[in-house]
Design goal:
The protein is 57% helix and 0% strand. The chain has 453 residues and is an all-alpha fold. It has 2 domains: 11-58 and 254-445, no CATH class; 63-248, no CATH class. Helix 3 (63-78) crosses helix 9 and helix 4 (90-121) crosses helix 7 (181-189). The longest helix is centred in the first third of the chain and has 32 residues, at 90-121. The relative contact order is 0.17.
């Protein structure tokens, strides 16, 4: 039987993790998910139990340190020392924070544009925000200063990488108090640090690298006619480039980040950093995690995640086939071969959800409506009615996107050009169940960090 795992590319179409609530005014959300077959609530609940410190778009560990560096640099530019006053009261700070907000966000976005340029020019393509647009600029030879790196990718939702990684940073307890932009500005106005001391000390290297990168690109503000290709050739030979480590974590960064992960998700305390390095000497699957954590309470949710994926992934894959060619009804071969696996997982979920002692806490994880929905699709496959299944999946996708508001269309209704600047494509996001793929890449970065230095 064909295997469709948690990394099946078809998930891209069915679980478009749109950060509709990430606002540039707050920069503090960004973990909600929306998928066209509405299996997202299942993913979200289990994901929050297993990997609350990452989202569906976080995939590189060092972005957690770039988050601090970018915010610190933007605060330095927006509220220099002479504007700070520890005697200011809360009301005055709130009012001033609102006035400084737009300037602060502009600094954040500009700094992140320069950071993206540095990452791409260092050949750090995997997980880099803005890489496709920067590569397009390099080809077109645009000005490095005048060109706006996030014209389409970073829309009014404020989906610049800092906003996306900030939610995970908050879960990891890296902020002293609140992490919204206005809260950070208010703290700065009073001359207070908004970040944990250990985050600041561990992030000092990333901050220094970011300062050098920004200083290099700002040299061209006086000469915006310089082509990006010319500036780029200068950058790769610069001191800023030589001192820039890209996504490579230092041993201190890896140790700090893993300690925060263990604090946020205690079941990871079972795995020391040394053991994590051993585990990640090879590719890690979701089944591997189930084996590692077989004796912890979270193991039941790891099992549930596997069964939920088994019960839903084939429908996601089938709908992905429809999206690729809406004029064609895909064959049922793969789904039909998977029916025993789907039924087994449905039975496990139903039994666990309704067994004594589980009903209350499993009510939100698995409910009768999912059983009925998937049961109906199973019946269509048993009858070999591919046309009805295709219609039902498309109808459900259309109802789900209509709930988001006017003007929304389901993936199978879009033209091929509609996704050119989709942030998922921009990041080459590998959509996976329960954020496992994202957590996996972050943990792999930590495990690959040098043991010293």
């Amino acid at each position: 039987m064909a295997q469709i795992g948690l990394n099946q590319p078809g998930f891209l179409y069915l679980n478009e993790q749109v950060l509709a609530n990430v606002k540039s005014a707050t920069g503090d959300l960004g973990k909600g998910t929306v998928d066209e077959l509405k299996f997202g609530p299942l993913n979200d609940l289990v994901s929050e139990l297993l990997f609350p410190w990452c989202s569906t778009l976080t995939s590189r560990a060092r972005y957690y340190f770039f988050t601090y560096a970018v915010l610190q640099l933007a605060l330095d530019r927006t509220i220099p020392r002479e504007k700070q006053d520890p005697e200011r009261d809360a009301r005055e700070c709130r009012e001033l924070a609102g006035k400084y907000l737009k300037e602060f966000v502009r600094h954040v976005q500009r700094i992140e544009k320069y950071l993206t340029l540095a990452l791409v020019l260092q050949n750090e393509q995997d997980g880099t925000f803005g890489q496709r647009r920067v590569n397009r600029w390099l080809h077109e030879g645009r000005s490095p200063v005048a060109a706006k790196s996030y014209v389409t990718i970073l829309t009014a939702d404020g989906r610049y990488p800092n906003a996306i990684y900030r939610a995970g940073s908050r879960v990891l307890g890296m902020f002293r108090q609140l992490s919204q932009n206005t809260a950070l500005i208010s703290a700065r106005l009073r001359g207070e640090h908004a970040f944990r001391n250990d985050w600041m000390s561990t992030g000092a290297r990333a901050l220094d690298e970011a300062r050098q990168v920004v200083a290099f690109w700002e040299k061209f503000e006086a000469d915006p006619n310089t082509s990006l290709s010319t500036a780029s050739s200068q950058f790769v030979k610069s001191t800023a480039a030589r001192n820039f480590h890209g996504f490579e974590l230092s041993s201190q960064e890896a140790e700090f980040l893993y300690r925060r992960i263990q604090a946020a998700t205690p079941y990871w305390r079972k795995v020391t950093l040394s053991k994590l390095r051993e585990i990640y000497k090879r590719s890690v699957s979701f089944d591997d995690l189930q084996a590692v954590f077989a004796d912890v309470p979270e193991h039941e949710y790891l099992l549930a995640a596997g069964h939920i994926d088994n019960a839903t992934k084939y429908w996601r894959h089938y709908y992905a086939e429809i999206v690729r060619d809406p004029e064609r009804v895909p064959p049922l071969d793969t789904v039909r071969e998977a029916l025993p696996e789907i039924r087994m997982s449905l039975d496990w979920l139903k039994h666990t959800a309704h067994s004594a002692g589980h009903a209350a806490r499993w009510e939100a994880v698995w409910c009768a409506s999912y059983e009925a929905l998937i049961g109906r699709w199973v019946h269509m496959v048993e009858k070999k009615d591919a046309q009805s299944l295709a219609w039902d999946l498309m109808a459900r996708a259309e109802r789900v996107v209509q709930e988001r508001g006017r003007g929304k269309v389901a993936p199978h209704q879009r033209s091929s050009g509609d996704r050119e600047d989709d942030i998922d494509v921009e990041l080459d996001v590998k959509k996976t169940g329960f954020r496992f793929g994202n957590a996996d890449r972050i943990l792999d970065d930590i495990a690959k960090a040098p043991r010293h230095g």
